[in-house]
Design a protein that fits this description.
Mean pLDDT: 88
Distance between the termini: 53 Å
Radius of gyration: 28 Å
CATH topology of the domain at 4-191: Nucleotidyltransferase, domain 5
CATH superfamily of the domain at 4-191: Ribonuclease H-like superfamily/Ribonuclease H
Number of helices: 26
CATH architecture of the domain at 4-191: 2-Layer Sandwich
Length: 663
């Protein structure tokens, strides 16, 4: 009996309906199956020619119905949904597996073409395949000459096998090659011997449940917020145009050129740089006109409100936003966002946060709000209110507190930091107390804020110049000396952390150079396979670094060994260098993600429905009459898994219960 059924569908209408719930657009009745390529194990690929009216082959329907046969597909959701909604065969998620998930776990590209290239697979998708999808899967607009000659002709029509037989033959071949490619890529990935752990497979299944559930959208808030923001945006752009005379004041290039001609000192018009220019113009006095334009640009508030349009476009037919998260989207295993990008929502204005409920209700009712903040700022600061609890439910949201610095403290065995966290002391104040030589009770709020960015920013070998820029993102301006004091003071106070940087760097060089395993601080650096170096984490899963090799680097004025590897990201592949701080950052973020995942497993087991995970947060919902509450969620999130308890982790979390999401 075949163990794997490989599948690939092609449908009609999928492109112009894709915005509605991503893969789940196949629920729409206008979508129809055109063809399906399939193969059992390594047997030749066969074709179900659905466009001819042919019924699904008996062997194919039997295999889809058989729970003992695994169904494989690249980005399997589409195939599973086609099978359910168009072929009327309901299959369980457990019956499917997705080769792109193994690639994601291995930090390879998750697009089929790019994954094939990365793995050296010859059976790649045809380069013109997307052209044929566009030609046959979405409607074409009738030419005006045709409509003029035949007024009864439909304005939109579909090209097909009769109108374009040669291209259709290529379309069929494209579908067949998809199965060849996904199967070959899977075998090539398996050959690297980087199997997913059982826990990681469970993580992907949880991810799929989360994406399929989605989050309910408060449509009234979104529609009214969009109207308010767009009206003020038009007004502000008109004012900027009147002051500058620019053709398109919304063009970043045009506006920055105009500003720099008037002695604007920066190459960026982002929030932080405009704020600094307005506050700290240095020896360059801003002209009244330039100051006015910068203040208007600041008022414009970037493009945060534009997410509202994306929410409405991508919202499903039932008012829910789905498929917004990518399993193992980052090299460290953290989730990445797609679509609306919930991972990078605008940081709310503190003044607005104090009256969040009031402003949210006012926007939902469509009122123009009288406030010292612009309408744009109010919308951007309340945009999280778009994501609401399902009617009859409430949101319960938990956030792991200072998780990365807690992991760093344990991994480096930094006793001062560990003791502070274990006893609940304020580490930010302790840090500044050590640096300034002042008693902790004399550290004021401004100094504590500086201590916070030191703890958050200096753990991964950041130099003083980069730290100076990092501080600016928190609206903290540091002199060169203050930045140097912060960086070098941190390294002196918590000396175990620089020691961890050196230990990890040396372990990686030694493992790759000698082709061996090196144990360091609870981690295993495995350099035995020249194709891929692995760092085994305490949870059992691995981080992967492809084509590692040791080179001699003279970057710091003296020759020293350095490991470089091939890194894959959304832009392609490039050669990247590894060093102690970066390795520490990778490992710390990966362990923090594993601790968060343990909390997600526990929360789901306790009865919470997980809607999203955003940074270190878990967003859940429960029915209004459920006994589950915030304390239950926080207990799940702070329960340390067995491997974490062995290492000595202590976790803390905070959160809230509300009818909608907020910061």
């Amino acid at each position: 009996m075949p163990k794997i059924l490989w599948t690939d569908y092609e449908t009609r209408s999928k492109l112009n309906l894709k915005k509605c719930g991503l893969d789940r657009y196949v629920k729409d009745p206008s979508t129809e199956i055109l063809m399906m390529a399939y193969a059992f194990d390594d047997e030749p690929v066969k074709m179900w020619a659905a466009w001819t009216g042919e019924a699904m082959p008996a062997e194919l329907s039997a295999a889809l119905l058989d729970p003992n046969i695994k169904k494989g597909a690249w980005n399997y959701n589409f195939e599973r949904d086609c099978t359910k909604y168009k072929a009327d065969i309901d299959t369980e998620q457990l019956n499917w597996f997705d080769p792109s998930v193994l690639c994601a776990y291995m930090s390879l590209p998750i697009g089929l073409d790019r994954a094939a290239r990365a793995l050296g697979v010859e059976h790649q998708k045809m380069g013109e395949g997307k052209k044929y999808v566009k030609m046959f899967s979405s409607p074409s607009k009738q030419k005006k000459t045709v409509l003029k000659k035949n007024p009864d002709a439909p304005e939109w029509y579909y090209k097909n096998w009769e109108t374009h037989p040669e291209e259709w033959a290529q379309f069929v071949e494209y579908c067949r090659q998809d199965v060849e490619a996904e199967r070959a890529v899977y075998h090539a990935a398996v050959a690297f011997n980087c199997p997913m752990t059982d826990e990681e497979f469970r993580a992907w299944q949880l991810d799929q449940r989360m994406n399929e559930t989605g989050v309910f959208i408060d449509q009234q808030y979104v529609i009214n917020a969009k109207k308010l923001a767009e009206a003020e945006s038009d007004q502000i752009l008109a004012e900027i145009k009147s002051h500058t005379g620019l053709d398109n004041p919304n063009s970043r290039d045009q506006l920055i050129e105009w500003c720099q001609e008037r002695k604007y000192p920066y190459d960026s018009l982002d929030k932080e740089h405009i704020e600094e220019a307005l506050k700290y113009s240095g020896h360059t006095q801003l002209s009244p006109l330039l100051r006015t334009v910068l203040e208007l640009k600041q008022k414009l508030g970037g493009s945060a409100y534009k997410k509202l349009e994306s929410i409405l476009e991508r919202m499903g037919f039932d008012g829910r936003l789905r498929d917004q998260f990518i399993y193992h989207g980052a090299h460290t295993g953290r989730w990445a966002g797609r679509g609306v990008q919930l991972q990078n929502l605008f940081k709310p204005n503190k003044d607005v946060s104090k009256f969040l409920d009031t402003y949210t209700r006012a926007i939902r009712s469509g009122k123009k709000i009288i406030s010292r903040n612009s309408q744009m700022a109010l919308v951007a600061s309340t945009i999280r209110s778009s994501f609401a609890a399902t009617p009859g439910h409430r949101l319960v949201v938990g956030d792991l507190a200072q998780i990365e610095s807690r992991v760093l403290a344990v991994l480096a065995q930094c006793q001062k930091m560990k003791d502070a966290y274990a006893s609940g002391r304020d580490l930010y104040k302790e840090c500044m107390s050590a640096q300034l030589g002042k008693p902790i009770d004399q550290i004021d709020s401004t100094e504590r804020a500086r201590g916070k960015i030191i703890i958050l920013g200096c753990g991964f070998q950041m130099g003083w110049e980069k730290f100076q820029a990092y501080a600016l993102t928190y609206s903290i301006k540091l002199t060169e000396q203050e930045a140097k004091d912060a960086v070098y003071g941190f390294r002196e106070t918590y000396h175990e952390i620089p020691a961890l940087w050196a230990a990890l760097n040396n372990a990686v060089i030694r493992a790759v150079k000698a082709g061996m395993c090196v144990f360091v601080n609870g981690l295993v650096v495995d350099g035995r396979d020249p194709r891929v170096m692995k760092i085994k984490l305490p949870s059992g899963r691995c981080l992967h670094y492809f084509e590692p090799r040791v080179i001699v680097d003279n970057k710091f004025g003296r020759p020293q060994d350095c490991v470089i590897y091939t890194q894959y990201d959304s832009k392609g592949s490039r050669q990247s260098s590894l060093y102690g701080g970066l390795l520490t950052e990778n490992v710390v973020q990966a362990i923090a993600r594993d601790l968060l995942l343990a909390g997600m497993f526990a929360a789901e087991k306790a009865g919470f429905t997980i809607l999203a995970t955003i940074h270190d947060e878990i967003v859940t919902e429960v029915p209004l009459d459920s006994p589950l509450g915030l304390e239950d969620l926080l207990a799940c999130m702070t329960k340390v898994p067995e491997w974490g308890a062995t290492m000595g982790f202590t976790l803390a979390a905070e959160g809230y219960t509300a009818p909608y999401y907020r910061k």
